[in-house]
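For practice. Any example?
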Amino acid sequence: MDSLPGLPSVWTLLFSGFWHLGLTASNYNCDDPLASLLSPMAFSSSSDLTGPPSPAQLNWRIGTGGWSPADSNAQQWLQMDLGNRVEITAVATQGRYGSSDWVTSYSLMFSDTGRNWKQYKQEDSIWTFAGNMNADSVVHHKLLHSVRARFIRFVPLEWNPSGKIGMRVEVYGCSYKSDVADFDGRSSLLYRFNQKLMSTLKDVISLKFKSMQGDGVLFHGEGQRGDHITLELQQGRLTLYLNLDDSKARLSSSPPSATLGSLLDDQHWHSVLIERVGKQVNFTVDKHTQHFRTKGEADALDIDYELSFGGIPVPGKPGTFLKKNFHGCIENLYYNGVNIIDLAKRRKHQIYTVGNVTFSCSEPQIVPITFVNSSSSYLLLPGTPQIDGLSVSFQFRTWNKDGLLLSTELSEGSGDLLLSLEGGILRLVIQKMTERTAEILTGSSLNDGLWHSVSINARRNRITLTLDNEAASPAQDTTRIQIYSGSNYYFGGCPDNLTDSQCLNPIKAFQGCMRLIFIDNQPKDLISVQQGSLGNFSDLHIDLCSIKDRCLPNYCEHGGSCSQSWTTFYCNCSDTGYTGATCHNSIYEQSCEVYRHQGNRAGFFYVDSDGSGPLGPLRVYCNITEDKIWMSVQHNNTELTRVHGANPQKPYTMTLDYGSSLEQLEALIDGSEHCEQEVAYHCKRSRLLNTPDGTPFTWWIGRSNEKHPYWGGSLPGVQQCECGLEERCLDIRHFCNCDADKDEWTNDTGFLSFKDHLPVTQIVITDTNRSNSEAAWRIGPLRCYGDRHFWNAVSFYTEASYLHFPTFHAEFSADISFFFKTTALSGVFLENLGIKDFIRLEISSPSEITFAIDVGNGPVELIVQSPSPLNDNQWHYVRAERSLKETSLQVDNLPRSTRETSEEGHFRLQLNSQLFVGGTSSRQKGFLGCIRSLLLNGQKLDLEERAKVTSGVRPGCPGHCSSYGSNCHNGGKCVEKHSGYLCDCTHSPYEGPFCQKEVSAVFEPGTSVTYVFQEPYPVTKNTSLSSSAIYTDVVPSKENIALSFVTAQTPSLLLFINSSSQDFLAVLLCKNGSLQVRYQLSKEETHVFTVDAENFANRRMHHLQINREGRELTIQMDQQLRLSYNFSPEVEFRTIRSLILGKITESIGLDSETAKANTAGFVGCLSSVQYNHVAPLKAALRHAAIAPVTVHGALKESSCGFVVDSDVNAVTTVHSSSDPFGKTDEREPLTNAVRSDSAVIGGVIAVVIFVTFCTVGVMIRFLYQHKQSHRTNQMKEKEYPENLDSSFRNEIDLQNTVSECKREYFI
């Protein structure tokens, strides 16, 4: 064809591929009765009740009135020879006239030759037709896909249990004509062009073929500049090579463009259609289509001289071909509307024939058989016994790794011969009794579905096993082995009633196909086996190979690799990011909000915005704070970038790469409440946007590849910067600082936040080419917060109400997930109906969730029962899933209910009604309660938006804290929001989204934190707190003190609480590392509680809790040691004035022990300090400007966990970054200040660390040497054996020694 002036439309492409095919059964009348005019000789059967074949046309009443077999069993069939290949569109059946014999279900088989039958399939499964309910009524079935064949066979499956098999049949269709060419493997047809070069922008090539060979070239064309197109059979699959590039790439070095089909060497017709427009190609084999785009710059395919069909002949060498030729038949071969075979038949000059090409299809009379059952299938064939030697050969194909191929008992006591597949390897064993005399292993991965030829020969002490024409011999010495052929050869398995010596099968039976069986060099007639005149068999399909490629199409989703056995397929989901039987479920959550809800802290995560949908996961940074959860996506250029020499004719352009597809980013943005990107333009004599009506000097490209001439902080469509909107630009005549065109550095910085334009994918700059003109730009990461779906909820308050959505389309895989809460006894969550199919999820009782689904094989129902009621008005999670492998139902964390899906029968879920959420189409059994976060196959349903226009349903659902309030820890308060909840950590010593992150700091010698009790300070937006009494000067009725510490110094003062009088409470470490709690309640009375279980100045984290309720005191150390004490009624507690952490800096009357501990104060790390509802350390670190807290000395925030792993006395400040993509100070963006003193500082730090280590070492040695003296000091601290289990000290009454009103207590 000549080059086209332009690309045709897609519709032109589609229709042009079919115009040459003429009329088909779907667009003209093709429903003539074909059997009514047949002679009785056209009918044949497996057996006949009367002996000779009986006519069995529809409404036949003569003689026996139809066909009935001699025995009614599953091996019977009725066959018709229609005389020629015809197009069959429908069938009809009756029972046998005047009898109780009829068939209630049957299947169909077709053949061109009366051999090598093919079963009729629909939905890729062997189809079962419904038969008759009596002898006379006619049941008619129109075939979903017409069939072209000469022979048709009816196979009864079930029949009237009160009668026998009986049938009268009719077949409907019309004549079928085609052009056929037969290639013998050494021939081809050459289609020569009228000109030297054929250049086409569009190609349509169609054909049908059948072959027994797995390899061979169907057609080929190439040009001298490198273009080529080749269609080739390779191992039973079709491979298309297509190259439009002038790179001189040849076929031998090019990778295939596409590969389709499987098991195409089955001697059945297969259709091929190739459609190309420019680089876009549709490649279809049978019903499977692959779309791809060719590489290269050109759109035209340039072919020189000719196209060859059937092979690739070598120019100048007649009969020589570059690759293996096609051996088989091709039918209706069209190239761009040209009927190639018709031209060849008419001997037109455009066609040159190489070798012997005939125009009728020669059919090899080969009879395959199928071993169906892995436990009971076998074939018994007789041999010639007592012949010196043995010869057996056959071909097989299978998907199973294991199975018995052949077992025979040899004559003359020469042993048993076993041939089997084990792990995909062929294994031949000859053994006598328990002695193995010979073994051969050969081949690998023979369970690949391809035909493999096997031959066993034993002659004159030599044993040879030949696999695919490669011979192998045993490693053992076989000179003493004498083999005599046996009388019975068992293929595939053993009968149940045989002794071990007659047939051995150490593994399971073979499942697969065999053909071309030879014993003693004689072919075996398998039709005679079928007719019962030769050998015996069980569970075989004779005269067809019913192998099926269960990995075509590949139902493993998201790039999962498919493998298979004879009965099922398996998916390997490794490295896909997905899991499940078909790799359907994402292992990642859909947003940072979900990760936060699970209790995760800030960090890098993968989010999968559409769950089980087609989009892959995306790596983001989740900055999980107390009020917002930010998702940040980094790109490849977030640094400040300098630009020189750009002008409108030669602009500077930078494309941003986010490491993901634009579709992934759009899904993330669309699912968020708010998104933004900070953009900064630093300039010196470099203009940014010009005037609002002028041509911009700089612009950026967004998601739809649109040009946007507005800058951060401005509105879409307004060509301004943030300063222009706020009327604060450097020059009021301009709307951007940079447009003032100053000689000094300035900048325009702001946030782009219009979601429909984000993300920024490219920036273009055109004004840095003038004298002294410089610019630098920075575009920050994409940042989003708020999950629009996770808290999207509705409330149903009438049983008749529901929300409706479009039909749920999920033919092969379906997953449904949501949260619900209710107080109702039952109700339907959702329902979708088809003609027969349906899907339904409901709460069927207070403790039972039911998932029911029907794909046409009858309903399947899964039930999960909860040990506790589910109608408790708490949120519960439900996930239901159906795939081709299994159906499952999950409720909360209860055990999952699963059921395997049948491999046969219907498997497409076909729904056509609306999807009903919260009710049913009948408006009965509606759901009362709340549903939120509804996902169907990863698609998010906006329930709230639909509820706004639906009566009986309200958007939103309050009460999140009732379900999730327990997620707020350590005194955090759950605060209800419309979209979820948050944890208010105001009165907690912890912070973070769940009040679990410790607030800790390193104290140096002399560091002091003083908190003065007074009215509360405003740390939240809600300043009208009702808990002000906590802070006022009152007598505390209770004290709850908690803190954690790490130190290596003794003595140390951890905490000091001063009352309005001279009373105080001190927590300190004594010289020996024991912990003391000292209550001075008056000048005369002091209570000292000592915890002496170990030296607590041991650089490990320790946790202390002191609780006083009235006069009852409890002290707990490290969750192990516990002390209880009741103060006497005379004891009086004073008003609290201040709380001090570390060194006491004011003049207070202290006793000697407290004064010693206060010498250096505290050196180490304090964490999560709390006194009642006050968090003094948190106030000092977070709210120092407004809280009644004073800090003296160095207080450095750090993690105590980090301190544990470091030298306590040499800890530097460690700040946890809230965002790894955080901003830096860019006021002087191009100043590159090198701080040369950093090396000096590093050296000083190293020296300090070394000195500190030495000091600590001396201290530890000193403490060890004087430990015993410390135990006998003036406090008379109590000694405990080192091996005393601390658990024995729990809840003990302590002895108290009274000395001048000082009371000492030991634990």
